[in-house]
Write a structure and sequence with these properties.
heterodimer, A: 315 residues, alpha/beta, Rossmann fold, five-stranded parallel sheet, four-stranded parallel sheet, 11 helices, 37% helix, 14% strand, B: 449 residues, Urease, subunit C, domain 1, TIM Barrel, eight-stranded parallel sheet, 18 strands
């Protein structure tokens, strides 16, 4: 009965199969075509309502979900946490159950606590999409990174990334993107390596399918794809870094450091960028940067996710 | 008034006794351990053949939550839970509201416990007073409590549990003062600058879950500091809830140097690892956090070689709605009184890490000695606090059946070996009602399980 639609929620790429990932990416390839049409609207999810509940600031992720929903003709309702009952101390449980009682069909949640999306999913009957939970996962970002790489390497048919190496550079400890990418890329066969300052590395990475490198040079070695993580400038204030200057010198991805990667290596960034800190402007805008393609692909991928989770089943 | 516990296997580490015997109790005191059948004829006779008779178990680390947090637990429910877990005596930690920092609070707790009569309660005082005008839970390294006054009112030790003293000078003065008052310091030993923001053990599981970690070194550094302060001050120091291999080794070394230091661990530190936090299970969230398999092995080795003197529970009840939250936001702690003996028997005695005698010593005689309590022994003349255990009984932990007000346990659904049947408090059989599988319930078919 649920053939082809086995996913109930999208909480992370760790707990879904490679087949689920391929199915979502294949579906996104179809939706990407719709994005290039002059009239970008299909009736697929007409009468369905998606609610976005964001406890943290976001421009691209929330807008991207909203666009994806609207192109599919779903209602997109944004709950602004700052103006909601959350400020009166309402618990996450009560907030999400209230939204469910308002007859939403899908909840997209971003929260500063790791595990918050999984927690919400346990309390709800409707599907939950994790739009970033603490340092845990950001699965739609992982999917759009996968999609962008498959698109570039012309693997939108097989979604097979064997033989490919992805380097993830920077603040791994606080990054949910790093974790989702690590699971997603390794599930499709790629090798994943982390590199960043020790003060921004998790205590123990043995539970992730990655190799950890000690400096930028070894981190970039052999990489066909580089994901440059955003450096939150408040890390410096917390005593994790001496200065942005030194970070940039040791870990910044620039035209100079790119020579350590495979020639022609792709550069990604989940945004928003600190130009001149973790990434130099020439690399961000260079011919191997797919940073803005990622944003476009984000809409296609989120359409695929919404379609999978919210689509009305045909008996 | 005489009571004869007849035909049981009597275990008393204080006299190296482990034999089938009758235990005769008279006027609230142990009268004699005699050969089976030779007991006094006029005594009320209770057949305990096939069962184990031990000194009443003592838990020196519980949170009874009263006064202030009665929605989590109160003295009545907490002592019922104690009796259900075979404990005849518990020491309650001072992080109540108001905290145990003034004599009237001490008297109130003791009076309430005596009124209910399920178990003896021995309050532990705070080392520092809450700050004047601040909230009860705000101990900004403020000033010493009136320890002599508190001791006169009935405290048996002082502790910084839940509010580990960060300032070394403050800890030094606390230990000096406690030492002069003849009180043992029970220390929580946590270097908070290393655990700030953390919610589980730092390690591979925390990395996978994306949860900020609390490294083992935070416990070890604070333990090492407090051990050195004990060396300096001569104060008797007891390390609460040891969870790391590092602290086991620190304690082992301190003992070799004959420092006046003891230590305890809790069942969750040998029965579980930090992998139990998977799925953001807030019932696996406690402080110190569950650690790695290597730490678990070190804890067991420390129990086996006698480095760790005491098994305690750190019984920490929280309401359902408090635990049912995002992992980061849920409070630390689990209930433990009613599962402690079975977890010790199943995980330590059955695999041969401890003998039954050693386990009983770590749950009665040792804690009694450390804080100077009556009990912990079946010597004639001692108070008649006794626990009756059925080692053959397998049972499944069900939160619906606990005596505690709270249900925050990671052991729900776990099958364990060994069950507490009932306790005797001052010569009187403690009745906690038909809900509990007491000896009455056994006769109605419970033994068929």
């Amino acid at each position: 009965m649920r053939r082809g639609r086995t996913l109930r929620n999208l909480l992370g790429l760790e707990d879904i199969s490679a087949d689920d990932i391929r199915r979502l990416l294949l579906s996104a390839a179809g939706f990407k075509e719709i994005l290039s049409r002059p009239v970008r609207k299909v009736p697929t999810l007409r009468g369905r309502a998606m609610v976005t509940l964001f406890y943290e600031a976001s421009t691209r992720t929330r807008t991207s979900f909203e666009m994806a929903a609207k192109i599919l003709s779903a209602e997109a309702i944004n709950v602004a946490v700052a103006q909601s009952s959350v400020t009166k101390g309402e618990s996450l449980q009560d907030t999400v159950r209230t939204l469910q009682a308002l007859q939403m069909d899908c909840l997209v949640i971003r929260h500063h606590c790791s595990g918050a999306a999984e927690y919400a999913a346990k309390k709800l009957d409707v599907p939950v999409i994790n739009a970033g939970d603490g340092r845990h996962e950001h699965p739609t970002q992982g999917l759009l990174d996968l999609f962008s790489v498959c698109d570039h390497f012309d693997r939108l048919d097989t979604f097979d990334l064997r033989g490919l190496t992805l380097a993830i550079i920077g603040d791994i400890a606080h990054s949910r993107v790093a974790r989702s990418d690590a699971w997603g890329f390794s599930k499709l066969g790629a090798k994943v390596q982390f590199a960043g300052p020790k003060t921004l590395m998790p205590g123990d990475c043995r539970s992730l399918p990655v190799t950890v490198c000690d400096d930028l040079k070894s981190g970039l070695e052999g990489a066909e794809v580089i994901n440059v993580l955003r450096l939150q400038t408040e890390r410096q204030e917390r005593g994790l870094l001496p200065s942005l200057r030194e970070y940039s010198r040791l870990w910044g991805v620039s035209g100079h450091s790119l020579q350590w990667a495979k020639p022609g290596a792709l550069v990604m960034h989940p945004g928003p960028m600190n130009r001149g800190v973790e990434i130099s402007a020439d690399v961000a805008d260079g011919c191997h940067s797919i940073i803005f393609d990622q944003v476009t692909h984000g809409v296609a991928v989120r359409m695929a996710v919404l379609y999978q989770l919210m689509g009305v089943e045909k008996e | 008034m005489k009571l004869l516990l007849a035909g049981g296997r009597v275990i008393d580490p204080s006299q190296n006794i482990d034999r089938i015997a009758d235990l005769l109790i008279e006027d609230g005191k142990i009268a004699a351990i005699v050969s089976p059948g030779s007991g006094s004829a006029e005594a009320e006779r209770r057949d305990v053949s096939g069962l184990v008779v031990t000194p009443g178990l003592i838990d020196i680390h519980v949170h009874l939550r009263e006064p202030g947090f009665e929605y989590k637990e109160d003295i009545e429910s907490g002592t019922r839970a104690a009796a259900g877990g075979g404990f005849t005596g518990v020491c309650c930690m001072p992080n109540t509201n108001p905290p145990i920092a003034d004599a009237p609070v001490v008297s109130q707790i003791i009076e309430l416990a005596e009124r209910y009569g399920y178990a003896r309660v021995h309050p532990i005082g705070a080392i520092q007073r809450p700050e004047r005008g601040g909230s009860a839970n705000d101990r900004a390294e403020s000033g010493l409590t009136e320890m002599a006054d508190l001791k006169a009112a009935g405290i048996v030790a002082v502790s910084d549990d839940a509010f580990p003293i960060q300032n070394a000078e403050a800890m030094r003065r606390g230990m000096e003062y406690a030492h002069q008052c003849g009180l043992t310091v029970l220390t929580h030993k946590e270097e908070k600058s290393l655990t700030a923001g953390g919610s589980m053990n730092e390690g591979a599981t925390a990395t996978r879950l994306g949860l900020p970690g609390m490294p083992a070194i935070a416990e070890d550094i604070a333990a090492a500091r407090n051990i050195e302060l004990a060396r300096l001050t001569g104060c008797r120091l007891h390390l609460l809830h040891i969870s790391t291999a590092g602290t086991v080794e620190l304690l082992r070394r301190a003992k070799k140097e004959c420092l006046p230091i003891t230590g305890e661990t809790c069942p969750h530190y040998w029965a579980l690892t930090d992998a139990a936090c998977a799925g953001y299970n807030t019932n696996a969230k406690m402080n110190p956090p569950l650690r790695t398999p290597e730490d678990v092995e070190a804890i067991k080795a420390g129990l086996a070689d006698g480095t760790i003197d005491v098994i305690a529970t750190d019984h920490a009840p929280h309401a359902d709605y408090e635990k049912d939250q995002e992992f980061d936001r849920a409070p630390f702690g689990i209930i433990g009184l009613e599962t402690c003996f079975a977890l010790a028997y199943t995980y330590l005695v059955q695999p041969g890490i401890l003998t039954l005698n050693e386990m009983v010593a770590r749950m009665s005689l040792s804690p009694a000695k450390i804080v100077g309590l009556p009990g912990g022994t079946l010597k004639p003349g001692a108070i008649a606090d006794v626990t009756i255990l059925d080692l053959d009984r397998r049972w499944t932990v069900r939160v619906g059946q606990v005596q505690s007000k709270s249900r925050n346990t990671p052991f729900e659904g776990m099958e364990l070996q060994g069950k507490v049947l009932f306790t005797v408090l001052g010569g009187r059989i403690v009745d906690i009602g038909p809900d509990h599988c007491s000896e009455t319930a056994d006769l109605s078919g419970g033994l068929a399980v």
